[in-house]
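Repro:
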Amino acid sequence: MRFACAAALAAVSVSASAQVQAPDAGAQKAGMEKLAALDGEWRGHATVLQSGGGAPLSLVHTERVGTMLDGTIRIIEGRSYKPDGSAGGFNAFAIISYDAARSSYAMQSYAGGRAGSFTLVATATGFEWTMPAGPAAHIRHVATLSGKHWHEDSLYEAEGKSPVKVFTMDLDRIGDNAWPGAGAVTPNP
């Protein structure tokens, strides 16, 4: 009896899994290619605009971007440094994926002990994404890529108020990188 139950359960499992369609990796890669201009290492300046009119915080900012999982996801790490080169301010990590069935991008972002899932929209000149920032408010990030230059503004937008720029960065592409896909652990010692 146990064997008959196990065999029936296995048959149902195989039948159910056969009905689930695997994601189209080719379509995922094609979707990710729209963001290929991001790949590489970037360096430049970022400015954090203080609320209440405080002095802006100027930082040296870097980004490194590359693909993993055979080009089906894109990894981004951003770091800011004080003008003297010491650690300061900002470090973030993000994973971007493309859902071919929905024709949409998703971004998982991690920074400052926080994590979130956001919709990312590829545009003709870069990308945009929005994150919540309180009741009836959000921060909209607008990135523009032009050749080897990456400009990004972050705007605080609250219902019934004019947008306020809270962050801006201007980066220049300084080269290629093999990160994060290179350097996998080999199976042999």
